[in-house]
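Field guide to reading this record: the first block holds the primary sequence, the second block holds the structure written as discrete tokens, and the final block holds curator observations. Each block starts with its own label. This record concerns TetR/AcrR family transcriptional regulator, catalogued under organism Candidatus Paraluminiphilus aquimaris.

BLOCK 1 — SEQUENCE
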Amino acid sequence: MSQKRATNAPKRTRLSPDARRDQILDVAKNLVVAHGLQLFSIKKLAVEAEVSEPLLFHYFSSRTALLQQLLRREFTRLVTGLNASLNGADTLDAVLRVYVSMNYDQCVEESVINLLLSEPDIAEAVEADVSENREIREKMLVSTIAGNLNVSKKTAAMFALMASAASLSAARFAHKYGIDRHNSVETTINFIKAGFEAHRAH
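BLOCK 2 — STRUCTURE
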């Protein structure tokens, strides 16, 4: 009888080490977003991921190391997606759309990247990458604005700073008051472009 039950029992899918690591990180991401970092624990993760605690420590040396790897993965995915979008953006309008959309999508309090970056010991895993990526993006935006509006790099940098502030403020407002993504993005782009056009008129 017991042998029959064992024969009929469903077999757990055996994952490759990389697939298992990703599966664990996926579950960790869901837990952090749902319950926050304060309530996140290795014990809870083991239960939700249906693995043993020793297996978790086989892949990740500590809770901090696990969360650092999660942050690296999510940040890499964000940058990869952003770069892919920018590669197809050949006009100022298209570039603005990429950045405004990104700001809207990332300006969610429950964003796992935002939550992980709020903890210094976790954030240090991508600190250098964040700074480098920000500098590259700022240079590209400044260059695009300068070329399209025929202004100096210094003036373009000021425009980029104002556009970024407007985009982030609009994103926070939209999330707070339930404005949908399409309306928020379009309104913000039109506002920024109106400011650029006002400069052209002078």
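BLOCK 3 — OBSERVATIONS
Residues 57 and 63 are 9 Å apart (CA to CA).
Residues 14-60 form a domain with the Arc Repressor Mutant, subunit A fold (CATH 1.10.10.60).
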